[in-house]
């Protein structure tokens, strides 16, 4: 008995110690250790966080991590990735194991306040959908009453699912998995009739199925899922760097700056562009953020502007072929909008 | 000096340095241990409080009363997404207890059979049992769970196949599919309570009759027909009451719904995979314990009982097994505890046990420390209660010295 209590206490002490390591000032921490520790999707979510056969990471979320590394160190390779499950991601950020969480994570008020995180930048506007086998003959999510639905535990998806069926007076049988891979396998084996997660995830998971054409994504989008990077609360310096790394990518697209033309653009006569790229003589934007003067140039060189990153990872340049839609620039009917950089 | 005292055999006890005083040393050690423990507790607690404050998070168990918001697959008590986190934890705890209890019963039976089988004189039976033990004892339990879930249960006929089959054979009532085993559910009508009471009376009467029969055997040497009378009391009595009451029991059959079977009773593949894996895995260890227990009883004991005129069955039941149990029970307790703790592997196949439900709550509410303490507290309690019961049973079975 006494032994068990001691074991429990040691466990609690270790938990506490983990938190001690989390310094209030993440930027100094990151600079001291020489790399950014980034929490990403651990189940190979193509387009957001996935490893190729050579072990190289790629995806929209990976680009945010690289952009932050490029801004801080001028070197996008100074980043290490921690693959996380939906369930492990929040404790990992709370305990200080990672500096930044970029794991297709929905920004919601309870995560922002109760969990002690900060969100602002949204690198993908998503919504929850359903995928079914075509042979079921289902054309709408409203026809799913009585279905078994595969879902990942500890996600906003799991909560939306319950609310959606409840508000439409339908019943369902949840089949809940902790890891996305297990949910994929169960859906593939016919354990569930439908699979639900963010629509972008559904497209990515559909590609993993033995025969993607046998599956279809239903038209209903049942929730708002703004996905974005999260950091620990009360660390506004680090929060600013992560936020503005994303806005720099969006601003670059607004200005028409790409990886290819960034050096040329430095010579632009447009004062907005010169200021943005750190070419204005007395500009202190970089220094005020705690970054080198050419931070934006480094980001664009490393990952390109937001449009380039989007097309490469999830758009036409990728197997997912997702349209820009909500993720287009505000000038083109989308929601991506960078506050002024001045 | 000391020698002189010892020789005269009188005077004060020998003076030793305080450093070597056994009483003092023992007190000092205990005080040091206590101080270390208190310091560790204080450090851990202080650390938790400080770090929570730094992360702008609050500690406490008030969150258990908020709405859960998620649905669960297997619920033995009423539960919906409107229930509280606390209710969800209760559902999870019940699911853990169900799978652990079912697993312990099955593991014990299978383990006993295999353990005895390994000692069999039948070459084939003994070898098969050896293979069973060596295979299951040497595979991690998680793999055994995956084997059942993905390797066996997932390959069963799909629900569509069953719908098809029902069109050809509308009278079928029992289905095995990759969504679980469907069977008719009993619906207890009015008056079934009387049948249940009759069954209880039958069991109590059977126990009383056995005690009386044993006393009579000791007094007169004659053995009344215990088996037949008990069978009549336990089976025939409730059956007669059941018929008299007008058979107050109907069956609710599973019928095809839009996506799944509706009605009836279903045992999900998640439960089955976990239950089969835990039972068969633990059974291999129990088999070895049983074999060791039987081997541990001296051969002279069975020879002596044969010499007294007992038949082999009687010798095993009355002489060998009671002695073997004394050896078996303590390690058996550890195996039960292992099985209970291994049930937390449920999370791998999505069975809604305490850890799976707690994990979801942890993630939705962010209360890691609270949830982890609840987990630890509950598992420690379940384990201690099991231990207490097994210790009581062990004491009852222990050698009574006269």
Secondary-structure blueprint:
The complex is a heterodimer of chains A (342) and B (402).
Chain A: H1 2-20, H2 26-33, E1 36-41, E2 50-51, E3 57-58, H3 60-73, E4 79-84, H4 89-94, E5 100-101, H5 109-113, E6 117-119, E7 124-126, E8 128-133, E9 148-152, H6 156-167, E10 173-177, H7 180-188, E11 194-198, H8 199-208, E12 215-217, E13 225-227, E14 230-232, H9 236-255, H10 262-265, H11 271-276, H12 285-289, H13 295-303, H14 306-313
Parallel strand pairs in A: 1-4, 1-5, 9-10, 9-11
Antiparallel strand pairs in A: 2-3, 6-14, 7-13, 8-11, 8-12
Helix pairs in contact in A: 3-9, 3-13, 9-13
Chain B: H1 2-8, H2 22-54, H3 85-118, H4 123-137, H5 141-152, H6 159-168, E1 175-177, E2 180-183, E3 185-188, H7 192-220, H8 226-244, E4 249-252, E5 255-256, E6 261-262, E7 265-267, H9 269-295, H10 299-307, H11 312-342, H12 354-365, H13 368-397
Antiparallel strand pairs in B: 1-2, 2-7, 3-4, 5-6
Helix pairs in contact in B: 3-4, 3-9, 3-12, 4-9, 5-9, 7-8, 9-11, 10-11, 11-13, 12-13
Radius of gyration of chain A: 21 Å
The major sheet of chain A is characterized as: 5 strands, mixed
Helix content of chain A: 25-40%
Assigned CATH superfamily of the largest domain in chain A: Periplasmic binding protein-like II
**Unreliable residue stretches of chain B:** 1-6
CATH C-level class of the largest domain in chain A is Alpha Beta
Mean pLDDT of chain B: 88
What is the percent of helical residues of chain B?
55-70%
